[in-house]
Amino acid sequence: MFDIHQFLAPSYQAISDTRLAPYLSNFKDGVNARMSDYTHGKIDEWAMLQEQLPNIEAEGFDLIDSVTIGNSNQLTQQQRLDLEATLRQFHPWRKGPFNLFGTDINTEWRSDWKWDRLKDHISSLQDKIVLDVGCGNGYHCWRMASQNPKMILGIDPSQLFLMQFAIMKKYLPKVPVHFLPIGIEYLPNEIPKQGFDTIFSMGVLYHRRSPIDHIMHLKKLLKHDGELILETLVIDGDEVSHPDQVLIPDSRYAQMNNVWFIPTVAMLMKWMERCNLKNIQCVDVNQTTIDEQRATDWMSFQSLNDFLDPKDTNKTIEGHPAPKRAIMIATRK
User: Fold this and answer.
1) 222 and which of 150, 190, 237, 332 could share a cystine (Cβ 3.0–4.6 Å)?
2) 87-129 pLDDT per residue, tens
3) What angle do CA 94, 95, 96 make, to 5 degrees?
4) What is the 3-state secondary structure (H, E, C) of the chain?
């Protein structure tokens, strides 16, 4: 029987070694609540698959320019075939790409492109305590680790993402990146004193029914003068006569039924100002292309190309503006 707390013991220990130690019980309670609310039927199978991974030590890794772990010459041809067969049982692989002992995991998203768009705009993560909300399988957490933080904590309610993360963590045990399978709603409402130095929330805001509450919660988990990196869907709107616009889809947006609010950048800035953040800036706006998000043999379901108007790729299949994403940076007063 899979023991989630034993599985997460390294993450709990890492939290206890930081100034967040007084909140460890809150994190554990959040895990208990989430697992009580929902436990994936394949979690025992995925845990057993972890045991099939090669028990070898990676000869080097690269997190600066990619997430590359080990070398292909560390495995025999049969071991490489077995490794790929095991990895494919964790389908779908959405965030990446990864290279593990020479096996390229060609994920749905080119998450490295997003990292390239923001990495030169954020403050250094050296010795920082970092939270990545909605981290997926942890791809960006590994890229953040190249800046030598004290600890990075990724949270995401997907138990499949937890297991994909655990594959990489097996070979990078000393890299201070950790994962809890919870959403932000399972975290404390506030960390009154020294919270996280830096918080990332990327691809989460438009899934929240109350976006201002989400921004406020993020702020309350930051330490004073801590930095927030917020990435979300936006629309162009009319920046001259009607800059403060918000799209609220009738039902679906690009076939997603959990998209609630898509603001203009001007409106997003106003939300952040109302949450009493400072130094607010938009550092990037980029329309997502079918080269950045697409189906692959590692994620063989439908992807962005299937959700756009076949006659006009600047529109979703429902007729809304096609996905465009802004990266915002701000600090807590």
Assistant:
1) 332
2) 999 999 999 999 999 999 999 999 999 999 999 999 999 999 9
3) 125
4) CCCHHHHCHHHHHHHHCCCCHHHHHHHHHHHHHHHHHCCCCCHHHHHHHHCCCCCCCCCCEECCCCCEECCHHHCCHHHHHHHHHHHHCCCCCCCCCEEECCEEECCCECHHHHHHHHCCCCCCCCCCEEEEECCCCCHHHHHHHHHCCCEEEEECCCHHHHHHHHHHHHHCCCCCEEEECCCHHHCCCCCCCCCEEEEEEECCHHHCCCHHHHHHHHHHHEEEEEEEEEEEECECCECCCECCCEECCCCCECCECCCCCEEEHHHHHHHHHHCCEEEEEEEEEEECCCCCECCECCECCCCHHHHEECCEEEEECCCCECCEEEEEEEEEC
Identify which of 196, 250, 266, 146 has the alpha carbon closest to the alpha carbon of residue 27: 196
Model pLDDT for residues 122-159, shown as the tens digit of each residue? 999 999 999 999 999 999 999 999 999 999 999 999 99
Please state the rounded mean pLDDT for residues 181-210. Answer: 96
